[in-house]
Every structure is written in C-alpha cells, then in structure tokens.
Amino acid sequence: MNIIEQVSSIIKEKEEVFIQVSDRIWELAETRFEEYQSAEVLCEVLQQEGFQVERGVGGIETAFLASFGSGAPVIAILGEFDALSGMSQRAGVCHPEALEHGGNGHGCGHNLLGVGALAAAVAVKEILKESKLAGTVRYYGCPGEEGGSGKTFMVREGLFENVDVALTWHPGSHNSVSTGSSLANYQVHYRFTGKSAHAAISPHLGRSALDAVELMNVGVNYLREHITTQARVHYAVTNTGGNSPNVVQSEAEVLYLIRAPKVQQVEEIYHRINDIAKGAAMMTGTEVAIIFDKACSNLLPNVTLNRVMHGKFEQLGVPQHSKEEQELAKEIRRTLSEADKQNDTRADVSLIGKDLASHLEPFQENEISMSGSTDVGDVSWVVPTAQCEVVCYALGTPYHSWQMVAQGRTSFSHKGMLHAGKVIALTTLELLTKPELIEEAKLEWKERHEGVAYVCPIPPDVLPSPLSKKSK
User: Fold this and answer.
1) Same CATH fold, 184-296 and 3-181+298-448?
2) Secondary structure of the chain: what % helix, strand, coil (to 5)?
3) Which pLDDT does position 468 carry in this prediction?
4) pLDDT band for position 216 (50/70/90)?
5) Among candidates 157, 165, 169, which has minimal Cα distance to 114?
6) Its GO CC terms (predicted)?
7) Fewer Cβ atoms within 10 Å of its own Cβ: the N or the C terminal residue of the chain?
8) Under CATH, which architecture does the 184-296 domain have?
9) Residues 306, 386: contact at Cβ < 8 Å?
10) Residue 215: helix, strand or coil by DSSP?
11) The whole model's pTM is what?
C-alpha cells in the first residue's frame, strides 16, 4: 500500500470510535475552559492509543498534551472541543429546535475539529510505530477558542517552545487550504459603578451607570470614522443594572471586542476606547473599571507549509457525498437566506446551484485575509503553522447558526472530519520524511515577522476565565 492507502486504512478501521467521540462531544457541548468531560473523552482515547498524556497543562484544567514518538522534528496537531452558549439545537432536523432553552451547542463544529485532529494524530502514530521514522507527533488539546483564546494562554506558558511545525483544520462548507491572515483582537469588559436613586422623586441624587454605558457606546460609534478601515469594533451590553425603569441604575457593564489587522493597531484603538470610557464616567459622575478578558494575534501565513498541505489534499481528493446526503444538504439550504447563499460562493461560479461543495479550491497565490480572528494566530507567531478547511456543512451555512449545530452529527460532517484527519496526517508524514521542508518553512516564518518579535497580547496577570464566572 502507498502512504495514502495506509493512512486511509488506519482511519477507516477506527472511524466508528472517532465518530462516537465526536458525537459525544457534540452532546456534552461544554463552553470555554469548562470542557472537563470533552477533554477527558479525548484523553482516554489517546491513552488507549498509546500516547503519553499530560492533563491540565499551562495552568488550564481542560488543556492537555498527548505525545507519541521521540526526538525531532516535533509536529503539533491542534484540536479544539469547546461549544457556544445559547446554541442548543436538535441534530439532523431542518428547523430551529433547541434541545434545552438557553443551552449550549456546537455552532462552530469544534466537536468535529478536535476529533479530525485526533484521527490525524492516531494515523501518524501508527505509521511511526511501524516505520523507522524519527520524530514526535503531539496532539494539543486546546480549550476555550470561542471567546477565550485558549491557545494564546498556552503560547504564553511556553507549551510550543520545542515544536517545529503546527497543523490544524476547521470544519466548513469548502475544501481549501487557508492562505490568508486573520484579525488580531482584544476583548475587554467596561464596568461602570454609580449611585442608585428613585428616578422620579430624587433623580438628581443618582449617578447612572447605564447612562455611562450608553454615552460610551455613542463615543465609540463616532470613533469608527477615525480608525483603520479594516478594524472592527463590536459590543454587547452585558448588564443594564436591572429591570426597573424607575431606578437610577447604580451598575452597568458593556463588553467590547476590538479587531484590527495587527496587534499594534488593536492596542492603539483599545487605548482610545479606554479614554472614551473614562470620559463617559466623568460625564455621569460614575466610576469605570476596565477588565481585560482575552486577546489573540493576527495569523502569519506560511506558503511553504500551505503548498505541502494543498499538495496532499490534491492527491487525496475531496469527500464524496451520497444522494441522501445531497438531499439533506438541499433541505438545509432551503432554510438559508439568499444573502447567506451568495456570501458563501466566494465568486466561484462552479458552486452555483450546488448544495455541497465537491471540489478542492485552487491554491491561492494571493493571501486573502479573513475578517474573523483565531487564537491559531498566536501559535503561528511562535511556530510555522498551516491549516485547511474541509466540507462538513451545506454551502451557505453561516457559522454560529442553528443550521451548523444541526449538521454537526450528519454523515457528511463525519466524512469531512475523517477526511481532514487524512489531510493532516499526510501533511505530517510528508514533513517527517522531508525535514528540508520544515527548514524552508522556518526560514519563511522568520521573514514573515518582519523584524517584529512576538509579544503575548494577554497581560501576565490575566488568567483564563470560564463563561460561568464572567456571567456572575
């Protein structure tokens, strides 16, 4: 058997285990830094497969490492497994139907992401065990990607210091290798404290924290004209102070997410927003506490690794879908708006009229950056990194939607997950057998820094925080 047949055979033999683990993580739907059961399910499989597992690494209870092999090169395979709050949804149906009102759900496919990475690590392990290849494959259990920047904390704790290359993937509606960058971001809480009073009898004695939040938001909205065009600033009022309109609210809070192409740009906007918050506090006679939550860096693409990954993807081909899978995808697409469908074609006329993408997108020489953010960015600043996207959803499926949760246990999402495992495994083995590619990737990686040293964007005194603590 050639290497593609070997890897495919290993993953095929264990596919039921991988599917069961993915479906179990989908059911658990645990949010950032509270993925205790999900992490343990993955750890148990890795231990059974002969990996040396280290739990609770980097001071994060749900982060773990699982290694097999010895010596260099060390290839990191990144897995995620956290869900989103408020995304509960029944699987396999074509209408919104929460399993639990206000419950969690896998609206970004991390049940698939973590297990696709698991399949890759296991396949590489089997090849290493049977061959005389030198090197180590290390699965990184990365919690809290959604709003937590788990990998950024892991980088800060030095967990990638002896790694040569990092590889990962993301479930999506296309087959492609990611070639662009992403936006860096900061997430910050602004907590205002004032003085309560009766809003009709003695409003002059009150100091409204809610007024401060509203004035801050107005100020930031005026700021938008005067920051870099590619920046994005979002906010959510997380505490209005209460439900009584006849009370001058003594407390209120707003959460800001600030994005820009580079960390330095985010930092500048962050300080300007801080000044606006302080100004709002002065205008209302209140006080403001600025609480840094998390951050992540922009991603440094690596053309060398991207070419290797795309080459392996091309040799392997793309997932093939049955008539039944096509029909289910068609039903899902009927629930989408025309805007959603058009937004996902990527100007590719070959996708018009299709329900599931059926080809590998050509390798992009130009680097098209995405408007989103990922903590993979911080990994890419300390080690050369590559990632791909594999079809797991109907074309047009928006991220963080009920449709994405509903498709998370379909046969075509499982196919995409297992296929991603093959792509990453083949890429890993290519790098292990041709270490000169790793050296080439490292040279490019150094050039990409443009003389700028990596500085973790999260201050040293800020610790990972579960959603349950933030909601208190």
Assistant:
1) no
2) 45, 20, 40
3) 75
4) very high
5) 169
6) cytoplasm
7) C
8) 2-Layer Sandwich (3.30)
9) yes
10) helix
11) 0.96
Counting every residue written for the chain, the total comes to 472
CA 367 vs CA 108, 179, 311, 342: distances in Å:
23, 5, 17, 21
Cα 78 from Cα 378, distance rounded (Å) = 13
| pLDDT value, residue 470 | 58
Count Cβ atoms below 10 Å from residue 230 Cβ, excluding itself: 13
**Hey, what long-range contacts does 433-440 have (CB within 8 A, 24 or more apart)?**
433/133, 435/73, 437/304, 437/305, 437/308, 438/73, 438/164, 438/165, 438/384, 440/304
Positive or negative: CA dihedral 408, 414, 419, 420 = positive
- First-to-final CA distance of the chain: 57
The C-alpha atoms of residue 277 and residue 283 are separated, in whole angstroms, by: 10
Instruction: State mean pLDDT over 251-255.
Output: 99
Burial annotation 63-88 (CB, 10 A radius, 16+ → b, else e) = bbbbbbbeeebbbbbbbbbbbbbebb
The percentage of residues in the chain with a pLDDT greater than 70, rounded to a whole number, is: 99
pLDDT tens for residues 22-65? 999 999 999 999 999 999 999 999 999 999 999 999 999 999 99
Q: Which of 376, 397, 381 is nearest to 171 (CA)?
A: 397
Distance CA 441, CA 276 (A): 43
Instruction: For 351-372, write each residue's pLDDT tens digit.
Output: 888 999 999 999 987 777 788 9
CATH number of this structure's domain 3-181+298-448, picked from the four choices 3.40.630.10, 3.40.50.620, 2.30.22.10, 3.30.300.30: 3.40.630.10
In angstroms, rounded to a whole number, what is the distance separating the alpha carbons of residues 356 and 92?
Answer: 16
For tokens 């074309």, the residue is 395
Report the C-alpha gap between 211 and 285 in whole angstroms. Answer: 10
Omega of the bond leading into 73 within 30 degrees of 0 (cis): yes
463, 37 Cβ separation under 8 angstroms: no
- The yes-or-no verdict on residue 472 having pLDDT over 50 is no
Convert the pLDDT of each residue in 391-431 to its tens digit. 999 999 999 999 999 999 999 999 999 999 999 999 999 99
Q: Which two tokens stand for residue 45?
A: 């499989």
Q: Give kind and range of the element (H or E) at residue 254.
A: strand 251-260
Domain boundaries, the chain: 3-181+298-448, 184-296
Position 346 pLDDT exceeds 70: no
